[in-house]
Amino acid sequence: MIATGQLEELLENILSRYGYDFTGYSRASLKRRIDGFYVKGRFTSFADMQRRLMDSTAYFMYFVEEVTVNVTEMFRDPAFYQTLREKILPVLATYPFIRIWHAGCSTGEEVYSMAILLKEANLLHKSILYATDLNQAVIEKAKTGIYPINTMQQNSVNYIRSGGKEDFSGYYHANYNLAKFDEGLAEKMIFSTHNLVSDSSFNLFQLILCRNVLIYFERDLQKRVLELFDQSLDSLGFLAMGSKESLRFSSIASHYQQIENKEKIWRKSR
Amino acid sequence: MAEKQVIKTRRLIIIGGSSGSLEALLKLLPKLHKKFAIPIIVVLHRSGQADNGLTELLAAKTYLQLKEADEKDLLQPGWIYLAPPDYHLLLEEDGSVSLDASQKVNYSRPSIDVSFISAAPVYKERLTGVLLSGANADGALGMQAISQCGGRNIVQDPEEAAVSYMPEQAILLCKTADVLNVAKIAALLNSIAMD
Question: Could you report the predicted ipTM of this complex, rounded to two decimals?
């Protein structure tokens, strides 16, 4: 196990060597991930691990992939997607052009879920979905739209629970043990790396989704990221968060209103 | 500095369980004293789908306050925190909890091992782990970590547990654990919390 002092030393060295700032991350989860990386890498000592990370950018990028959490599924929390479908999309439909930002999109399951919702609401043609993550490797996976076929059963169950009425298997082509989503769904997606910790606002959106990302950040960093979202959101735009996340305690809370059914979606009032 | 002092004296109890543990918990919770002075975290294996009233059910069985844990909750004596479905619950040095949506551990999220292993080096000898009935080995490695960090372990007597596998696995890995029935677990926890 990595000692607390060693963890802090590593985070400082990573920041000065690579510019990736993990110092605002919640320590318990980060330490667990790095402990796991240490065991998996069979290092002889903490110094050994640190040397390898400092010596090779490629190896450091692998480290970033391993210590950040990239677990996601399609239509995760079906009730949340049902709310998007029934309460949020009808509002977005009134705009001539819809811009959506998936911040921390991981391997893209949430982006494809959103594209399916938009297509079924006949809104995809006038939408654009920006999907960003700090991790280049997951962005590359997301771009392919290819997922293991064995996840499709759960995805399909979630889709139906979210109020989906179509045949979910019609959205992908199965090939051996892989499923590739229709390229038509991906036409409106723009994937790019973006680090919420250090990069700035790059557009104005009507809907920002950032689910199960802020739980890994300490309070100060959460506040900064929420301010970034606030700068990136049109007035009357929507901010969607994970089921255990909240705008409570944030400086932007005063001009946001949670939607009526208590799903974790807030609307900007001005 | 004053804050650090508080942390050094902060104690914690984590109760874990899987199949058959709900009935044990429903017997245990009403026996905990009104003035129970240590926060309790309950980590139960539960389905990822919507909250099926578990929080309300458990809250009705105890004199203590009970809530589903939110991220960054600062643990308070007199409170019981239920780990939310589909998140691991970890413990921070400042006495707060963190949630984590990473891979399942032992087919479970929340995983008892994740909470035990995270809490063990933070709370050291001030941590008590309790493991109830279950059909899975989750919690056993965690109890080993608790014991290595100087904490105390209590396992439900496999003879009493509705499903004995989980307690048995923990006893195999952690010989120093107290093996007790629910009534005695409650009495022991009450005595620890009244010190």
Answer: 0.92
